[in-house]
Amino acid sequence: DTPLAEAGIVGMAIGMALADLKPVVEIQFADFVFPAFDQIVSELAKYRYRSGGQYTPKVVIRMPYGGGIRGGHYHSQSPEAYFAHTPGLRVIVPSGPFEAKGLLLGALNCSDPVIFLEPKRIYRSIKAKVPIEYYTLPIDKANVLLTGEDLTIIGFGSVIPMMIDAVAELETEGYSVEVIDLVSISPLDV
Q1: 75 carries an active-site annotation
Q2: What pLDDT does residue 190 have?
Q3: In whole angstroms, what is the distance from residue 122 CA to residue 144 CA?
Q4: C-alpha 142: how far from chain center
């Protein structure tokens, strides 16, 4: 057990990563990440650039996030935009249990720090079989879930099941719909 000291948790993870460890830390709720925000966006995200690639702190920060669970104002925030607009960070959002395991294992192989946002809304609402075997999913490539020609719907995280339901209704009206799960909402290196 550790105290809820988010800046300390992330600061220790940065130090561990600089010592060639691969820390995976959890912020109990994304709503509580803000005391560690400076550590993440001003330090962790900038190490590779500032060191000319000499230091690449491989840190994964897991955070349950989002609303839709009647969690109130301290348990329903969605800070993904703050992190998605930070160069040097990868932001990953799974849309189900199978994706969560594969993307988390994929995040462990990433050379950049990863913010791994777990949609609270799907914790108990989606059940799926997840293989025991080791597998990874690509964290830098969108996943085309359905192909279609009339309309493309793009989303991530907990909205994916709702998008699939909407497509079923649209198909009864004769529309052919493509559905894309972004998986990563990080800025692109250009």
Answers
A1: yes
A2: 36
A3: 20
A4: 13
User: 143-146 and 90-92: which strand pairing?
Assistant: unpaired
Q: How far apart are CA 77 and CA 89, in angstroms?
A: 19
| pTM for the structure as a whole | 0.90
| 32 burial type by CB count under 10 A (0-12 exposed, 13-18 middle, 19+ buried) | middle
In this structure, the strands spanning 24-26 and 60-65 are parallel
Number of H helices, E strands in the chain: 6, 7
Instruction: Give CA–CA dist 157/160, Å, rounded.
Output: 6
Q: What is the DSSP letter of 184?
A: B
- Helix or strand or coil: residue 15? helix
CA dist list (Å): 68 to 51, 75, 125, 139, 158:
41, 10, 11, 25, 9
75, 90, 101, 121: the catalytic one is 75
- Convert the pLDDT of each residue in 110-128 to its tens digit: 989 999 999 998 887 888 8
- The type of residue at 108 is L
| Three-state secondary structure call for residue 144 | strand
Maximum Cα–Cα distance across the chain: 57
